[in-house]
Amino acid sequence: MPTVTLTLRGDQIGRYSSFSGTGNGPDRIVTVDGVEAIGTANQLFTVVVEQVNTGVTEFQNGQFITILDSDNNVVVPRTSVQPDIEQGRGAGDEHLLLNNQPFLIDLGGVPAGPSTVTYTEADEAAGVGGDDDGQLDFMDFPCITPGAMITTPDGFTDVAALKSGDLVETLDHGTVPLAWVGRRTLDLTNRATGKPILIKTSFFGEQQPSRDLILSPDHRILVNDPACKFLFETSEVLAPSKGLVGLPRIREMRGRRHIEYITLFTEQHEIIFANGLAVETLYPGPEALHRLGALGRAKILSVCPALRHQSPSVVYPGARRLLSVRESKVLSDALRLERQVGIEEGAAEPSARLRVVN
């Protein structure tokens, strides 16, 4: 069976003194006492998961886990994984309690502590996404990498320097504040993790971004092209970047072992500018909410509480039509054909109109 290697921050791993649970099913509550992060957000730890069945993307019974610090010192000795130790809905898709070693993982963040942490049905993403199986998932959600320059009222700001409350420029609504900023580091050696998408500056024709842009594979890009009107009856769409792979100078990145992603969330879905390219802020669909972690999801739901009970398409409409990956690939095929026809007719090589919008 293959081994999966993950990278977590120090504030996503914690020690605890004891835990207890009451109730079953939707009423299950798990209380963990003496929780204390083993490090800070700037410290990285390696999580080695053994005996992972092929195709599995989450922690399951029968696996073993070892955690090492950046100097390869063992922090958590090899121990068995038992996700169902908490039972019922108190178990969570974003956290994992280790029973034989007093440690836990919580992708949403572990308090500096020592503190008491309570997990309930809400930490299962029940009703808003997730598979509610109590098994911590390996996956991530759409975001941007550090180094991307976001357009703000004060000029260009590295996305890594942004925080909640900072102002960004949007295509539709002028200057708006960020409601939440999330960060996560992913292990790209895990086959279940999608490859980052690299967009070269030369793709965009005369109006080029200031530098290459790296996005997570699900992050959507604004596309403005006659093909959009023909295929989707609207002049502009937001297309997942992984569906556009194959267009000239848009490709999957390979060779990296780890990558850090940063997610920007606003009170309504917006189009912002990263290296001059029009891209989306986080759209809180079921998969994104499922992968955010308990703390991140709690913040999203505090900004838009209606998401607890209603579809995001109703209470948090997309800034443009949101294409599926399949639709994005159809659009990509049309753009390639458009480009080829232009070249055969002797015209200057056309831009695919993933426009830099000024």
UniProtKB/TrEMBL annotation:
Recorded coiled-coil stretches:
none
GO biological processes: intein-mediated protein splicing
InterPro entries with a match to the protein in the record: Hedgehog/Intein_dom, Hint_dom_sf, Intein_N
Specify the Hedgehog/Intein (Hint) domain's residue ranges.
142-285
Q: Name one Pfam family in it.
A: Hint_2
Tell me where on the tree of life, at the top rank, the source sits.
Bacteria
Q: What is this protein called?
A: Hedgehog/Intein (Hint) domain-containing protein
Q: Species name for this entry?
A: Yoonia ponticola
